[in-house]
Amino acid sequence: MGAPVTESKYNRVLLKLSGEALMGDAPFGISMDMLQYVADEIKDLKELGIQTGLVIGAGNIFRGMAGASKGMDRANADNMGMLATVINALAMCDALEQNGVPCRVMSAISMRTVCESYSRQKAIHHLNKGRAVIFAAGTGNPYFTTDTAAMLRALEINADLICKATRVDGVYDKDPLVHSDAVKYDTLDYGEVLQRQLRVMDSTAISLARDNNKTIMVFNMNVPGNIRKAICGEKIGTLIRGGK
User: Torsions phi, psi of 220, nearest 5?
Assistant: First the structure.
């Protein structure tokens, strides 16, 4: 077993976490243990000198699509979901700050007494100052997912890599938690993801990545040190880019 890689291939990354990732073993809400775990992983990146942006979903609190499927107006349901992402962002920011990582929450929906309003220029300023930046409230518009928001923010801050954290070690042809014969992909191109309808990120996010040639790394966040390995170029997870 070789020595661990300690030098990053990237300067600035955008980490996309699901809201469910913050639940830990609980059926709902936010696990303090998971917050601390994620904060430790992000602190590891800061110690490597990597500028880190985050987008966190809200499935642990409220998912707009779920509300709409039960009869709610879709725009109202999505607005509720976007507000729920702010709750997660504030919790994550608190954990980071207590772990010695300076952090700012920037919301696409203005709520100045709670957090900063999103501004591309201010976000880049914070990143250059060594602060983690959590982008909350999605794009600020209904009908767009936090996957799309993550890709949009990654493009706006010119992130070198989009890291999509999951519960499994990459992208498979079918759910490996259900199917024992699921096959893992080491690399994919954007067209394959769209054509095979692989559930990595939504089609709008993948199309944005393809049109702007942004690389996506999909990996298991629940393995300590995995995000550091991914960013340092070790072959874990699945890499999605233009051409294989």
Answer: -85, 110
Report yes or no: 38 and 17 within 8 Å, Cβ to Cβ.
yes
CB 140 within 8 A of CB 117: no
From residue 20, alpha-carbon distances to 62, 116, 157, 241 in Å are: 10, 24, 25, 26
Q: How many Cβ atoms are within 10 Å of 119's Cβ, its own excluded?
A: 12
Q: Which architecture characterizes domain 12-241 according to CATH? A: 3-Layer(aba) Sandwich (3.40)
32-47 vs 74-98: helix crossing angle, rounded to 10: 60
Instruction: Name the region of 17 (left: φ>0; alpha: ψ -120 to 50; beta: rest).
Output: beta
pLDDT-based confidence at residue 41 (cuts at 50, 70, 90): very high
Phi and psi at residue 162, to the nearest 5°: -105, 120
Rounded Cα gap, residues 82 and 206, in angstroms = 21
Count of Cβ atoms closer than 10 Å to residue 132 Cβ: 26
Domain ranges in the chain are: 12-241
- The mean pLDDT of the chain is 92
Give the residue among 144, 120, 99 at the shortest CA–CA distance from 91: 99
